[in-house]
Structure formats: structure tokens, C-alpha cells
Write a structure and sequence with these properties.
heterodimer, A: 203 residues, mainly alpha, two-stranded antiparallel ribbon, 10 helices, 2 strands, 68% helix, globular, B: 262 residues, two-stranded parallel sheet, 48% helix, elongated
Amino acid sequence: MAQKLKETILNPILKGNPITVLVLGICSALAVTVQLKGALVMALSVIAVTGLSSLVCSLLRNTIPNRVRIIVQLVVVAMMVILVDQILKAGEGTYAIDKQLSVYIGLIITNCIVMGRIEAFALGNKPIPSLLDGLANGVGYGLILVIVAFFRELLGSGTLFGFQVLPAGYIPNNLVILPPFALILLGCIIWVHRAIDKDLQEN
Amino acid sequence: MNTNSNVYTVIYTAVIVVVVAALLAFVAGRLGPAQDANAKAETLRQMMSAAGVKPTEELYAAKNAEILQLYADNIQEAYTIGLDGEKNGELSVSKDKIELIDRLKPQNKAILSEGVATLPVYIFKSGISVIPIYGAGLWGPVWGYIAFQSDNHTIAGAFFDHESETPGLGAKIKDEPWFREKFIGKTVEWGDSPAFRLEKNAEASGASNAVDAITGATMTSKGLNEALNVWFKAYEKHFGMGAFFHMLEEHAVETTPNAEEE
């Protein structure tokens, strides 16, 4: 049991990472990784949404009519996303970040990871493992987001979390700021991930 | 229980939707005041940044309550004008009634369709008056506040913001202080067409109503230029006359001694 739980938590972060292995949630990984702060808030938002949606759907799993299960999942996910958005808008410190992330918080609902984990895991498992699975997938997603944002903010603006890190003479690289570079960076991360973990390599 | 029957499915979805709606309505109601306070403070930060009440970084570091107090301490009066340039309403300067940035969009529509507009003018105790501008950038709306010296002709300060311009390119209108600082000391030539130019190499002409567009952000610059000129046009009758009289006054002072000699 403990072994299984451990796997539930570790698998989505490493071997079954939603971004680098399952290649889900790419769109927002390109959009919100220009600055670390935004990426971190986005990551935390996604962790909250995947975790809580999986928990609620798992609690409801035996009552949901099979024919409308996707719709019920959507309603639950949408509710969580709106809650996160409302809370970010209400916080004095998070308001500016919510403004900066603009539509991408709302678009968490279209993030395949959320619905994917509900369909694949939460509907067939007990609430606690489902919660952990959701959280862990969110962490796996957030980890990649933060790594990508680290390089993009460092090379694109010369800052980290808004603080100047590179010397003032550094000329920011505009390519790094544009979405295509995030895709290149993501490719590099997948490459490194596969080079380390030989199990992921195809013949 | 048969969870696949039609009756069950209909009732189940109805209940879920009602429960979720009730929960969201409750949360929105509870968080509403805090969100309003944030939106108000944000509007005031941008306005006071343009008016030069305090440096922008200090405004953004300050708490909401401090911002409201700062506004209350510095604002003189606020009113609205129509497209004919005449005053058509008073705005409360109480810190409970602040016009949010959200209100600029319908005003922009009113200007473009030549409908009934109530365009705000904020006058600070320093004699500086602030007006908003609003328009379309590349990916979404861009807006800002322009502050005028008491001659209603010279720009005392500016602040620009956007919803979703490209970070590092169009987003520079907000992120780069040098961009808004370029506007300080420039003039708006009321009555001229265009009243202001935000264009490539505009500064090279030496005109006092010109600022260079941002390299790599052509569409955002174009949108901002459009926003500036559409709104300046709307305020032209109001400020244009004022600036004209101001010029006359200056002129009168210069010429009076001569008149006496004759």
C-alpha cells in the first residue's frame, strides 16, 4: 500500500511527467513561462485545481451517470478554476499576478492534465490516492513550468523573480521571450529527461 | 440504484449545477469587496503615477489603504465632459466612488460612435489634470492616463497598461519606465491632426508632440498612437479652448505695456 502511494506521488513527477512524457499541457507551458513569478503562481493554481478536482470527482465517482460523466467533470473543474481565479483576484498581493496571467488562469480548465487525471485515475480510485495523484501531476507540471521560466526570465530579461541577476550590460534576448523558444527549451528538457531515464527511450 | 436511467441523469446534473452555482455565487459575494478594493487601488495607482503624486515603484509597493488615503489627500475635483467639451457631470472624489478602468471601454465606444460620452477629468491639488486613454493593442486593449500641467498643453506624466501585449515587446509600454518618461514635457497640440504622434523616428522631426514608437512593437505602438489621438480628439474641445485662453493670457501680458505706450 505504502509502495503504491509512493508510486502515485513520484510517477507523475518523474517517469510519467505530464509535460515531458505525456506531452499534455504544452500550450500554457509556452504561454506563462516568460517570468518565474507568473509561472510559479500558475503552477500553484494548477496544483490546486488538479488536486481538488480529482478529490471531488473521486468522491462522486460512484454516483456519476456514465453518459454525462465528462460534463460532470467539466462542471467540477470549471468550479475549481473559477474559485482559484476569484481568490487570486481578491488577494492584495496576488492581484497584479492574476492580471499578468490574464486569461491563462481561466484556461486551466482546458488543460488536458486535469481532465486526463480524472478520467484515468480519480474515477477508479479512492479519494485520498486521487487527491495525491492530482497534486503530484500538478507538481510534475509546475516543475517543468518553473524550469522553463527560469531560463526564459534569465536569458530574456536578465532577471529572476524580477531582480536583476545578469550584469546591467546584458542585452536581453528577444527570441527567448517569444513562445517558440519555450518549445525549443521544452524539447531540450525532454531530451535531458530521456537521456537520464533510459526506460523512456523507444527502440 | 440505476445510475444510467434518464430520470437519474437529469436530476443528478441539475443538482450538481445548482450546487456549484450556489457555491460560486456565495464565494463571489464574499470576495467581491476585496476584489473591488484591488481594482480601485490599481486604477488609482495608474492615475497617480501619471500625475506624479509619487514615483511609480512606491505606488506599487504601497498597500491599498495607503493608496486610497494618498488619493483622498491629493485630489482636488473630478468631473465628466461630453464630446461637445462641456461639463456634463460631477464625479465624486470620495474614496468609495472611484471609476474603474473597466469603465473606459464603453466610453471608448461612445467616442467612436459619437454617442453620449461622460469622459472623466481628474484635477489634482498640484494643478495637474489627468485624463484616461483607451484603445486596441495587438492582442487586447491598451489604456493609460495622461497628466497635463495647469496649462492643459504640456504633458506632466503618463502611465500605460495593457491586458495581453507580448512580454518584452509590446508590454514595454508598461514595463519600461523610460517609455512613459519620454512623454514628460511633450505637448499635445489640440486642434492639430494628429494632436500627438507616437511613430517611428517621430522625435527626429524635433516636434514637441512626438515620441518614437517602440522597436519590435509596431502594432502595439500603432494601437497606442490611435488610442491617444482618438481620446485627445474627444477632449480637444474641452482642453483646446483652455489652452487657447491660456495662450491669450500669456500674450496679453506681453502686449499690454506696448498698448499703454501707444
